[in-house]
Amino acid sequence: MIRILIGYAVAYAAFEGTAQLAASIELSWRQVIIALAGIVAVVAVEVVLFRQGPGRALVLLGLGRPSAWSLLVAGGLSGLLLAAYPVISWLTGARFMLAPGWPILALGIFLMNGIAEEMIYRGYLFRRLREGRTFRRAVLLGIALHAVAHLPILAVAGVVVGLSAVLVSVATFPTYAYLYERGRSTVWAPALLHFTSDTIKLVIAAGALADPAMQTATLLWLVVIAMVPYLMFALPARRSSLP
Question: Please, how many CA atoms are within 13 Å of residue 158, restricted to the half-sphere of its CB?
């Protein structure tokens, strides 16, 4: 357990430390740099602390071949999330507009919030916690450590944003972990869903959160991304639950 915690601390420190050091870089490219730093750090953890070869480490961290079921479910849930935008806009009066240069911004979000974070939180943290533990116990431990990692946001972004980040990370951890396991222990499906959950960054202009309608819309979006992934449990299982 000590090695797991040390590795988690190293990967998280590299990820968040790079975010602070690269704060002056343009947002899209900053996200790419942060993602690369996180990926390199978590691969280094597997190589140094757990004596894995680099290629083997990448596979263990979730870059293997996923199951078709997991990708289909993640794609379907992502479609439902995206369909919520016009509904939220209609309910709140908020206007969502794609940011200039949104394709590069979307790539950065996918690499940072999708691939890099899922490699750290599911491919490394959850997988290591899962060894010798039940799915439920590994998830509960992962939630606790994941929530602690989000606490610094309270100091940086304020209580409302910080608590929202913590609550959403706690609410989505079980579903992302489930997709990870049902996806042959790969991060592709949870990364897709994680990326879709962060597309709110593509449609909110700088300073737009000062608008009460946009504040309400953002809160509704957080509720949606916390709840929609649980719809997967209503699907008939092709296999008899988790390994």
Answer: 2
Domain range annotation of the chain:
65-234
Q: Which amino acid is at 94?
A: A
Query: Is residue 33 classed as helix, strand or coil in its secondary structure?
Result: helix
Per DSSP, 110 falls in state I
CB atoms within 10 A of CB 187: 29
Largest CA-CA distance found in the chain, in angstroms, rounded? 54
Say which DSSP state 206 is in: T
Query: Which tens digit of pLDDT belongs to each residue from 95-133?
Result: 888 888 889 999 999 999 999 999 999 999 999 999 999
Contact between residue 145 and residue 8 where contact means Cβ atoms under 8 Å apart: yes
Question: pLDDT of 135-166, one tens digit each?
Answer: 999 999 999 998 887 776 666 656 666 677 77
Whether the predicted model's global pTM rises above the 0.70 cut: yes
